[in-house]
Design a protein that fits this description.
The structure holds 2 protein chains of 2 kinds. Chain A contains 3 helices and no strands. Chain A is an all-alpha fold. The chains are: A mainly alpha, B mainly alpha.
Chain lengths: 124, 181
């Protein structure tokens, strides 16, 4: 880089400490200047090389998500199938009994009155 | 736009040549605004990345240098706004981010103190003063190079440099950083 020759004194008598301020500014700005100067930022296909890397972890995580969803679904189906074997029978028999009663009387089924056994020591 | 690797290669070479040619000037412009070398470099690199993206989008930029300087200036202004939000009334140039050059601890302390006061006084100068000082002292550009960048005459460069130095010297003397002659 070229160096500026001694600057002319455009305002005679005013700049009294050119050497001092010059040296100070030079030291300050040189400390500020990036050294070494960085290269051009990575662009385009150079930048796309690392960009292809995350696809494998992405695929792996997607596979894990799909597998866990599948597991959840299978678990849900198998559990609901197991309970479906027991519960619907009782429900069906109760429902059939109720339907028969309804057909016979022609009225809505009444709730059954249940009598509780008397408590010990209770005097009616 | 063509994007095959073999077609990108000349573009990369051109891009790197433009970076070599203009990055210092762009950095100096932003540095003069912020007095922060790291922010200036981040913004410089961002401006160049945007240039590349413009090329990828098929934009034809006729005056690359002017485009880069304009983008860098806008980015610096955007940074000013976001920086104001982050730091309240204290922009980063008020923070003492002096980088050392491996002197002794005492020398480093003295240098950091001097540089911090110099930085503070530099913030009081106009941006055009800071710009011309940065081009001269950070990049070692000579008067004709500065004249070309700032689109002024070499005589005007000498005049402005001299005045900027004098203003700074007066301030530093008043602060006791420099002694009276």
């Amino acid at each position: 880089m070229n160096t500026l020759p001694r600057p002319p004194m455009n305002v005679p008598g005013r700049e009294q400490r050119p050497g001092e301020i010059d040296g100070l500014l030079r030291r300050f700005f040189r400390a500020e200047r990036p050294d070494p100067w960085p290269a051009a930022p990575a662009t385009g296909d150079r930048a796309s090389v690392p960009a292809t890397r995350p696809t494998r972890p992405l695929l792996r995580s997607r596979f894990a998500l799909a597998a866990s969803l599948l597991l959840l679904l299978v678990g849900h189906l198998s559990l609901s199938g197991r309970f479906a074997d027991n519960v619907p029978n009782a429900a069906d028999s109760a429902g059939a009994k109720e339907a028969a009663h309804h057909d016979a009387s022609g009225t809505l089924p009444r709730p059954q009155r249940t009598t509780l056994p008397p408590k010990p020591g209770h005097v009616p | 736009m063509k994007s095959g690797p073999e077609l990108q290669a000349p573009r990369h070479a051109e891009f790197e040549a433009i970076h070599r040619r203009h990055s210092r000037e762009v950095w100096a412009l932003v540095y003069a605004r912020w007095l922060n070398a790291d922010i200036a470099m981040d913004i410089t690199q961002e401006a160049f990345l945007r240039l590349w993206k413009q090329w990828e989008a098929g934009e034809n930029i006729i005056n690359v240098r002017a485009w880069l300087l304009r983008v860098a200036r806008n980015l610096a202004e955007d940074h000013a706004k976001s920086s104001f939000r982050r730091n309240g009334t204290h922009p980063p140039e008020m923070m003492n981010g002096i980088r050392a050059n491996n002197p002794t601890p005492l020398e480093r302390l003295e240098q950091e103190e001097t540089f911090a006061r110099l930085r503070k006084e530099l913030t009081q100068l106009s941006e055009s003063d800071r710009e011309i000082l940065t081009l001269r002292y950070a990049l070692d550009y000579n008067a004709s190079e500065i004249a070309e960048i700032l689109a002024i005459t070499a005589t005007a460069v000498h005049m402005r440099l001299s005045r900027a130095r004098q203003r700074l010297a007066d301030r530093l003397t008043a602060q006791g950083v420099m002694q009276n002659p």
